[in-house]
Specification:
Elements lengths: L2 H7 L13 H12 L11 E6 L1 H20 L6 H10 L2 E7 L11 H27 L3 E5 L6 H8 L4 E9 L36
Antiparallel strand pairs: 1-2, 2-4, 3-4
Bound molecules: flavin mononucleotide.
Length: 206
């Protein structure tokens, strides 16, 4: 599969088959993340692979968080559905930045700059993973709702840092249509025009 096909055919998958993924497949997806570019080559990613009985423990942690929100009368937003996906997916990869802390902790301005640069790097790593998974026929969901239960998940995993994201992995039990995208001309502003090509044999461009 070429990169263009992987980009065009990838979809967020929210229903998975129970079939497990073999370790080689998971490692190949993680390795695509490892190879991503990163600001100052900091490689600000650490991956914790959750499957089997650990998935049940993680799910209990997520459900306890939702139950607390419901009891307190606060909304759960999209988290309830995302946590259902995490319960269903055979594998969830939690993506940590060991050099950062939760967004609601104090950050100086230089730290904020690193946080933004690292977030871009982490996004590159996750996107590499999604595209490699697509190539391997594995469905994915990129998850940001981990922020809803950030501190509980960090405590459960035993890591005191930023839980930046998660990725659910498994074989898809659905084939969603492409979701809408804005047209390119609504996103792009062109400035200037390319220089004329030098004529063959002219001294231009030498
Ligand atoms: C940073 C980020 C966080 C996301 N978090 C969630 C999430 O928590 N739950 C969810 O169901 N989808 C989540 N998504 C998936 C988006 O909803 C999805 O990419 C978007 O609707 C476009 O659909 P597509 O991926 O099928 O093209 C997230 C995507 C990104 C890039």
């Amino acid at each position: 599969m070429d990169v263009k096909s992987a980009i065009e055919n990838r979809r967020s998958i929210r229903h998975f088959l129970p079939a497990p993924l073999d370790r080689e497949t998971i490692e190949s997806i993680l390795d695509a993340g490892r190879l991503a570019p990163s600001a100052k080559n900091r490689q600000p990613w650490r991956f914790v692979v959750i499957q089997g009985s650990a998935r049940d423990e993680m799910s209990a942690c997520l459900q306890a968080r939702l139950a607390r929100a419901i009891k307190a009368g606060t909304g759960t937003g999209s988290a309830a559905n995302t946590f259902r996906v995490m319960r269903e997916a055979p594998v969830t990869v939690l993506v940590f930045n060991p050099g950062d802390t939760a967004p609601w902790t104090e950050h100086t301005v230089p730290q904020m700059v690193d946080t933004i640069a690292d977030s871009l790097s982490l996004g590159a790593a996750v996107q590499n993973m999604l595209l490699r998974a697509q190539e391997l026929g594995v469905g994915t969901l990129w998850i940001g709702d981990t922020f809803y239960t950030h501190d509980e998940l960090c405590a459960w995993v035993g890591r005191d840092c930023l839980l930046a994201s998660a990725v659910a992995l498994g074989y898809a039990a659905e084939t969603p249509p492409a979701r809408a995208r804005m047209a390119l001309n609504a996103l792009v502003e062109w400035r200037g025009s390319p220089p004329d090509s030098p004529l063959p044999g002219s001294s231009q461009g030498k």
